[in-house]
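2-oxoglutarate-dependent dioxygenase DAO
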Amino acid sequence: MATDARQPLQLPRIDFSGVDTSAPGAGRWAAVRAQVVDALATLGCFDAHYPALTPDLRAAFFDGAVKELFALPADAKRRNTYGPDKPLFGYLGGMPGLSNGYESLAISERVEPESVRAFADLMWPNADDNAGFCEAVHGAARRMAELEEAVQRMVMEGLGVGRCHGEMRESMRHVFRMSQYRPPSDHTEGSKEVRYGTHQDCSTITVVCQHGDVDGLEVQAGDGQWVRYKPSSPASLVVMAGNELRAWTNDRVRAPFHRVAVGGDVARYSAILFALPGLRIQAPDELVDDEHPPRFKPHCNDDFMRFCIARGARHEDKLKDFCGA
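Predicted structure tokens:
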């Protein structure tokens, strides 16, 4: 009898070794740019081998800062809020529509040393010194933001609209989210529980760093098959296109549906950097022609996020519903 010898699908791997994010165009930049554009056009995400986020920094961040953060009492974590108009910018936990096994805190706007310090002071108002926490968190967030900016620039250059990068970059704000996904109560081998349901991101680019080898992220390919992410190296990050990059490129990149499902008996920790544009999202003229008529109406990210919150966690193409042309 014939057997199916196909290997499980994996995210495409792109090696950023030797790519200096502060020197666009130098070294391997052009070769990596071609891979980035192809990966985001086909699957909408990829596994980035990114040695700039070193093992020592990852360990200080997750084993020190992040685990210390989630050990805080719930009342302390609930202080992480940005007001009723921004419900997705702060603490998430125990909310309708979210699994009880999921909890998350965030630093929003621009992840600069001052905002990290303000977050630490909010969490530990009586601490004498939060320097170690701040150094670890800012160090991880800064390197993830450097990769995000490089990928944004590569996409624009690869599509022939590199002129737009400066304006987009100046408008960009970030949400840096630190998340914990508790293991299922049933530890039966092979069993998994969804901790964050199927969705697309409202960002332009999302960068994900998971702690160690506790997997959970699953991405839906174009044929509907679910691809379970397994890091290709200890230096791996996931880079994923969000719906705002899909809109800005006039549907030339995919914004994949994805979810988090965990198994085993160990909690999963991750850091997620969302890049949110402050300017009006409208495809450049160069990306609109007879073969590529406008797919989406111009809009603002704040309005789109409010629409997504109002629609809830339903598995649907919210961008098309919100502003499809």
